[in-house]
Amino acid sequence: MKVSLVDSRISFYSGHNLLDTPPQNSKRVYVTLTGLPLSFDLRWPFHKSTSGADFWVLHADIHLENSARLHAPVAVNLSATVREVMPSLKPNDVEGPVINSLRKEVDRRQVEFLKSGKLVPVHFSSRHYDFKRHKWVFGKARDEDITLMIERKVYWQTRLVGGPVWIGDPTEALYVETSTVHILELARKLADQELITLEAEWGSANASLMAQAERFDADMRRAVTDLESKHAFERKTSTVDL
Asked: pTM for the whole thing?
């Protein structure tokens, strides 16, 4: 699977207190808007393509958490044109956009998770970047959708890894086209409902949230079924065309 990455113009974590960030080797769970818990194994650094083409490559693996080791290996391809406008290819500059570009493709059901990792190539475009406003755009989400994403993130991170959970992660705000301040405002409402305990940018799941396992599991099963059905249909259609 090949992904084209486009211009970010500024350091992704610019202006963010890096003391709030989790250790680089700690697993972070990111949830799609459809309810799939994912983790990303980004194998830094970007390296120049050895095929003779003028682009840089970052190998990665998207893991579908809470599954039978299903995953999707990917190659993120960065063109020379875009490279010229990137501040750098270091994680602090490109990690968030890379994760969200891949997460968006999962939300769009363009990524298939398999045990073998054998995938049909998918070509990503620069549609996630607004060149007029010089900003990444992954789609504006409603407050209710953002709130549900926060609930799912805290639940799955706690269940799969443990807490506390970094709710103020700028990658999350970038994905739903809002600010970390607004993300935390919505998280405070969950704290008011006693679903989570919020301290600064970090949230811990309360028993009342973890007791909703059936709901979160159902959301994931439904999203997996939709994803598998879409790819099964495409394989069937491809066979008929042959």
From this structure: 0.86
